[in-house]
Amino acid sequence: MNIYDFFDSPDIAAHCQSIGHEFSPLDMAVIIDRSSKPVKEKYAAYRAIIDDYPDMSIHESLNFDARDSLHDYLRELIAWEEDLIDDYYSTEEDALYRTCVYVNTKAGYHDSDFIYSTPGKAWEAVQKDWDWVEDCVQYVAINKISIDQEEYTQAKFNTDEELISFWSYKSREAKTPDELRLIFIHIPVPFKRGDLVMIGDRKPCVLDDIPHWWTGKRPYKDYISGKHGDGSDMCATMYTISEIGTLLRDHGPMFCLTELRYYDGKLAGQERFLRYLSQYIKTGAESIDWLVNVFLKFKAEDEYDELSRLFGGLYRELEREDS
Q1: What is the overall mean pLDDT for the chain?
Q2: Most buried among 21, 162, 206, 292, by the most CB within 10 A?
Q3: Model pTM?
C-alpha cells in the first residue's frame, strides 16, 4: 500500500518521501482516517494494514482509550461503520433526509429548505440545483434525521457521489469506537514560519505556528506519546484577511495540518498584504510602522475599488476628470 495516496497535501507527501520518513501502522491508520478518500478506499486500506503490516498496541491519549491490538480495533471500526451505513440507506417512515452543500466561496455552505424521503431523491435535487464547477462545490452532506428518536446521521459525498465521511449520533446506542483522528501523530512538514500557505483550495494564509514548534511546559514529544493533548491539536495558527478587511490570527480544526500546502495562486485586493506580512515574519527586516502603512494602503485601495464597482465606475470617471 502506498500511504502517500492518502495525503491531502501533495507538499507534505513529497517532503516525507524526500526524507524517507517511515510511518508506523498506527500512523498510517490515522493518515487514512484523516484523508478525503472515499470510505470504501479507506476500508480497503485498513484491511491492507491488518493483512500486510505487523500488529501493535494503541497508546492511551486524552480522548482515546488504550488498545492491545490495532488490528482488532480496525476490524471493530470497519464492522461498526458498515452497519451504520446499511442503516443510513434503509429508509424508514419516521426518517427524513436534508441536504447541505459546501462550497469554496465566502458563503461556505448552503442548507436546503426541503426534506426528502430517500438519500437518492436528495442527491437528485442537489444535482438539479447545483453546478459542481461553476458553483465551486466541494462536497455534499445528506443528513438523515429520525423523528422523535434523537438520532442523527451525517454522510458527506464528493461530487462523484462517493461517500467520503460518516458520523452518527444515536442516543440509545452502546459506546462507539474512539475516532482515529483523536490520536496525535508526527508528520514531518516542509513549512517555515511566515510561509504563504492554504488549506485545501481555500484562501491564502500566512503560517504563524504549528505543533512541531511548540516548546515550554508541554513539549511536542508529550503530544506524540499521548501524555498531553490529542489529534485535535494537529492544526495550524495562521493570519488571514477577513471578509470585512481585518487581519485575523486564527487557530482551529479548520486549519488541519494534514491539508496544509503552499499557496501558489495570485494575490489580489487586500490579500496582497499577506506577501508583505510573510516577508516581515521571515526576516524582520522592516519596521512595524512600515507594515501597518502597507496594510492601510491595500485596505484603502480595496475599499476604493469596491465603491467604484458599486457605483458603476463613477469614482474612476471622476478621477479621470480631475487628472
Answers
A1: 87
A2: 206
A3: 0.86
Quickly tell me which residue has 469596491 as its cell.
306
Furthest C-alpha separation in the chain: 78
User: Helix %, strand %, coil % for the chain, to 5?
Assistant: 40, 20, 35
178-198 pLDDT per residue, tens: 889 999 999 999 999 999 999
- Spatial contact of 153 and 144, defined as CB atoms under 8 Å apart: yes
Q: Are 16 and 189 in contact (CB under 8 A)?
A: no
Give me the residue label for grid cell 500546502: 261
> What is the DSSP annotation of 281-298?
HHH--S-HHHHHHHHHHH
pLDDT of residue 318 exceeding 60, the answer is: no
Rounded CA gap, 23 and 48, in Å? 15
Q: Which three cell numbers stand for residue 242?
A: 477577513
Whether residue 205 contacts residue 240, with contact meaning beta carbons closer than 8 Å, is answered with yes
Please provide the size of the chain in residues.
Answer: 323
Spans of all domains in the chain: 3-87, 90-170, 196-302
**φ, ψ for residue 295, nearest 5 deg:** -60, -50
Question: Are the beta carbons of 261 and 197 closer than 8 angstroms?
Answer: yes
- Among 78, 90, 107, 77, which Cα is nearest to 153's? 90
